[in-house]
Amino acid sequence: MTTAKPNVGAQVEQMTFAIAGQDGTVTIGAPKDRWTMLFVYRGRHCPRCKRFLNKLNAVLPQWTDVMDVAVVSADTQDKAIADKAEFGWDFDLCYGLSVDQMRALGLYVSEPLSDAETTEMFAEPGAFAIRPNGTLMLVDISNGPAARPDLEELLDGMKFNITNDRPVRGTA
Fold this sequence. Notes:
Layout: E1 15-19, E2 25-28, E3 36-40, H1 47-58, H2 60-64, E4 68-72, H3 77-87, E5 92-95, H4 99-105, E6 109-110, E7 122-123, E8 126-130, E9 136-141, H5 151-163
Parallel strand pairs: 3-4, 4-5
Antiparallel strand pairs: 1-2, 1-5, 3-8, 6-7, 8-9
GO molecular function: antioxidant activity; oxidoreductase activity
InterPro entries: AhpC/TSA, Thioredoxin-like_sf, Thioredoxin_domain
Protein name: Peroxiredoxin
């Protein structure tokens, strides 16, 4: 099955994700007061994801001054809780991203190479800037773990987009 390119400017399909180690949830695609940046990571098995998420955590206050930040993977609750405990991340770490949700977001989906990697299909990395009205403003997706956005550049660009109410680009 192929995955469709994310439709910037369109309403994001409403999705709710459980937060590891908490009773709360994160919902995307529904109207809210603030912008949201959703980062999708491959899961506990990915060391490159850990490096990226450690970098995100180090600059998290700069991000949360501007928008809400959530991180999600297809991992189980136990794996997400183990990552949260091991790394002490401060962002909302969510779990249980389904294959249907991966496809709705336009993510690349991979099968594990072995049980040592993981046992279920998982999403490759993605970053999604979602306006308060629930529409997709900006997307960055990769088909593998090595390509990630520069967090400083991305935040700077998002501040500019938000401050200047920039229109969605790349719609054709």
